[in-house]
Amino acid sequence: MSMANKVLLIYTGGTIGMNRNPKTGALEPFDFEHLLVNVPELREFELVIDTYQFDPPIDSSDMTPARWTELSHVITDHYLDYDGFVVLHGTDTMAYTASALSYMLENLTRPVIFTGSQLPIGQLRTDGKENLITSIEIAAAKDETGHALVPEVGIYFNGHLLRGNRTTKQSAEEFNAFESFNYPHLVDAGVNITYHTDRILTPKWDKPMKPHFRLDNNVIIFSLFPGIREDLVRHIIATPNLKSIVMRTFGSGNAPQLPWVLQALREATRNGKVVINISQCMQGMVEMGRYDTGYQLQEAGVISGYDSTVESAVTKLMFLQSHYQDPEQVRELMRQSIRGEISVN
Ligand code: ASP
Asked: DSSP class of residue 315?
């Protein structure tokens, strides 16, 4: 007799488990039991589903690197006891958490599937049930050799599984809340669940998963815009403990050709700060050699973020700078794909 697959369902909070406060009318996180009572279908799975709840559950706008470390610990502590993990999380910062976890869980051999919903699970038209049920199915799915079909950190929403560190929240309104603009879907769930195995990472199956728990959040994201002021930019760059900057540029990675912009970036690089160029466009690649305005940035020491999401770039920096003192090592690894997060190599 084969043993039933086991999935650990981790509830961090978010709309999926929220209830309306009768006094204020606002949604607030609710107890996990409430959520489970609303999905009696879970009993129909031929799986063992255990649960773990963050205490207290939070709106994901309150997510922090400390919580990411806690999540990494929960998954690591239970790693060998379960075939897969489903993390229920608010949609607002889900792409940040999924990106962070993709870096913290190295050589992942089991699925870690994030999901949530736009409407609470207790509401008639909720999208939460399908999201939850299919996420559990994906987390437990294995091939004929017994390997997980999706050994990745993914985000499942509205019929699609996306690579976590490629994903951005695109809508606060539609059920189709997420998209991975620069990487195709890993799984499409319609009448059948189609696993696009050629797009899914292959870990070293014979090696253990290597967890990481440290993050260093001395990083800032800032956007360029016509009219940006020198004094304000210089103020940010001069912050003593700041180690890196995710700079959101125009189009294919362009910036205004103001002498002070290039001068400030050159000084930042010289002072050991890592500056990553990420486009304000959701889709496409930073190509600093394409226009003179981008080329100048490259000359000033700015590193291309290629087709990275902002969420992935900022969490990758937190991860790398907690490991490497030398900014040159951080720059080097930012140029490489370490978890399938950018289209290079
Ligand atoms: N504010 C909620 C959260 O991110 C939204 C959601 O769950 O969709 O926790």
From this structure: H
